[in-house]
Specification:
The protein has a seven-stranded antiparallel beta sheet. Helix content is 28%, strand content 42%. The protein is globular, with a radius of gyration of 14 Å. It contains three helices and seven strands. The protein has a single domain, classed as 2-Layer Sandwich (Alpha-D-Glucose-1,6-Bisphosphate, Chain A, domain 4).
Length: 125
């Protein structure tokens, strides 16, 4: 069953470089996204209390974009962290693109909102 893409934006009080490290580096990902993160080349293994998921790093533009594709997802499904600086306010904006079943989009957005609270705490932002 095809999933629906959605986007959710967050203002993060951080430089794009620091934010990029937090969405790419395993040591930082394990501070907010998962309990533990290991890598083998382009493969990331995300672990949560006895459960793990594998993803492939499919796009990486330093300080601008990091995208992953779950190993068990359809070819056109991914989750992406785009980092932009608002030209007017100067704020760093994290734009997350993800996929979910139609009836799970709101739950998935709430999950991301909770994770971003953890991200901001881990960054001291």
């Amino acid at each position: 069953m095809a999933k629906t893409a959605f986007e959710i934006d967050f203002i993060i009080k951080s430089s794009p470089k620091i934010l990029y490290d937090f969405v790419k580096q395993p040591t930082h990902l394990s501070q907010w996204f998962c309990e533990r993160c290991d890598t083998k080349g382009e493969e990331y293994i995300f672990m949560w209390s006895g459960y793990s998921e594998r993803a492939i790093l499919i796009d990486d533009i330093e300080e601008e974009l990091v995208a992953y594709q779950w190993k068990n997802a359809d070819e056109d499904e991914f989750f992406e962290f785009a980092i932009q600086v608002n030209e007017i306010s100067g704020d760093t904006v994290l734009i997350i693109t993800d996929f979910a079943e139609d009836n799970e989009v709101e739950d998935q957005k709430m999950w991301w909102e909770n994770q971003i609270v953890k991200l901001k705490r881990a960054m001291g932002s």
